[in-house]
Amino acid sequence: MLKLAKYLKPYTLQIIAIFIFVFGQVMADLQLPDYMAKIVNKGIVGANTRLVFTTGFAMLIVALLGAACTVAIGFLAARVATGFSMDLRAKVFDKVERFSLAEFDKFSTASLITRSTNDVQQIQMAFVMLLRLALYGPIMGVGAVFKASRTAPSMTWILGLVVALMMTLIVVLFAVAIPKFKRLQTLMDRVNLVTRQYLTGLRVIRAFNTQEHEEARFDGANVDLTNVSIFVNRLTAIMMPMMMLFFNLTAITTIWVGSHLIGSGNLLIGDMIAFMQYSMQVIMAFLMISFVFILVPRASVSGQRIAEVLAIEPIINDPADPLAFSEDQKGLVEFRDVTFSYPGADTPVLENISFTAEPGETTAFIGSTGSGKSTLINLIPRFYDVTGGRIFVDGVDIRIVAQEALRARLGYIPQKGVLFSGTIAGNIKYGAPDAGDEAMRRASGIAQAQEFIDELEEGFATPIAQGGTNVSGGQKQRLSIARAIIKKPEIYIFDDSFSALDFKTDAALREALHAEIKEATVLIVAQRISTIMNADKIIVLDEGRMVGMGRHKELMEDCPIYKEIALSQLSEEELELERV
């Protein structure tokens, strides 16, 4: 948690105020046993009624001041802890939002969710306890021991023995708890991961009748988490009875020793009562410290996990002084001897790729599975950075411009259509929130989505479920394409974005696109020959290398790999018909 202390700077004054109120509360609590001893020794035993009332009135005032301090501490501690946790969640979200795909590979989605929610909650709970008890407990413990030693020096050894026993107990529990808390958070990640995989893959699980297997996986993760949680809760449960045992033994010992001292005239009754009160305060102080020690190990593990996320510096960053794009060229994409390897990989995924995609032209990429097609176009928005060579957009190296400026020129349509909860209109306007309804209808018409939208009762106001589960795969792709079209980018990137469309819709969509976005650069990754055979330039990839570039007819004659792919899908007669 110390790594996160720098984020407490905005709350410095409030923490100082808490410390002042804690000190006031401790002073009030330590003063009350003295008043009690005074009432017993001089008021009741001395038959001084006036002293009883005046001292009792002073006790009431001090108790009220102590109560006011307690309320102020609770209010400020809750405010600081909730504000701190809010800031942590915001910083984690902001950091993750700036992650490149390389950083995402270091954490599972389930782990990031746990760190942003449960881990932050653990820190918030521990921080409240720290502010309310961690300051109060040690000050009260030290103050009570000091006051007790002055009140009854001959019985101070009792407190020394109790303090030694309680310290031993706390240290042992602390040593046992830390490894368990680390395992607890890891197991919680595992439960979240299994749950998320089950929910997102529910259709596949049912289709293959693997419910029992998934139930067994979840049961295993759930039982492991439960067992560790039970162990941790047992540790917590031990604390209260052990502290109460120490308290009762202290009380018995104090009364036993104190009665002999009173009988010999070496101790007053009021002092013995005050000593017992101070002993109780010492034990309560250690009880508070023990609660903090139970919470802090788990919170420290959570703090480390959050610090791990915040400490990662994205490998893809904007330059200190980003350049602006040239306005003379719009839509020009150029790869110059580009090589790319995934982090930790031994061999490059792409090697020595060079080509130019001109505005007003369609450049297509095709190749077998794993040839690097999607990886190649993911380099253009800087989802990854090249490990060799350079990529230019509008004549400028994409690594010396701001990422926001680069992506503002792109319309990216992923292979798997991603929709957000909301409405159809909200999803289409996601990249252009200020676009009007007419532009939205035009974009949906080009994307061949208008037909199925009109059939819906609420039209563009139709709600979209989380993840777009209430629309088909083809509808998702068409809505994703409309979302890119309404943005009116200079460069369109289609990452196999027509795979869920039937041949008729695919052909109609490509025809509409060709008619409406004549000035833009279009980059298409596709598996179907029919989707790309009319492209102005087709680039053939094989195991990360360019093995062919040209038009369909040229590649059928000069590129054996392209010809093999084409003939595996269509006959020569069908290829000629498609071409016509």
How many helices does DSSP assign? Answer: 20
Q: Could you list the spans in which at least 5 consecutive residues all have pLDDT below 50?
A: none
> What kind of assembly state do the chains in view correspond to?
single chain
Strand content: 5-15%
| Number of strand segments | 12
Short description:
With 580 residues, the chain is of the alpha/beta class. It has helices at residues 12-44, 49-97, 101-104, 109-134, 136-151, 156-200, 202-207, 211-263, 269-311, 373-378, 403-408, 424-428, 437-446, 450-454, 473-485, 503-516, 529-532, 552-558, 560-569, 572-579; strands at 333-340, 350-357, 362-367, 388-393, 396-397, 410-413, 422-423, 463-464, 491-495, 521-525, 537-542, 545-550.
Please tell me about this protein's structure:
The structure is a single chain. With 580 residues, this protein is α/β, with parallel strands linked by helices. The chain folds into three domains: 2-311, ABC transporter transmembrane region fold (Up-down Bundle); 326-409 and 491-580, 3-Layer(aba) Sandwich (Rossmann fold); 415-488, P-loop containing nucleotide triphosphate hydrolases (Rossmann fold, 3-Layer(aba) Sandwich), CATH 3.40.50. It is built from 20 helices and twelve strands. It has helices at 12-44, 49-97, 101-104, 109-134, 136-151, 156-200, 202-207, 211-263, 269-311, 373-378, 403-408, 424-428, 437-446, 450-454, 473-485, 503-516, 529-532, 552-558, 560-569, 572-579, and strands spanning 333-340, 350-357, 362-367, 388-393, 396-397, 410-413, 422-423, 463-464, 491-495, 521-525, 537-542, 545-550. Strands 6-9-10-3-11-12 form a six-stranded mixed beta sheet. Strand 9, helix 16 (503-516) and strand 10 (521-525) form a beta-alpha-beta unit. Helix 2 packs antiparallel against helix 4 (109-134) and helix 6 (156-200) packs antiparallel against helix 8 (211-263). The mean pLDDT is 82.
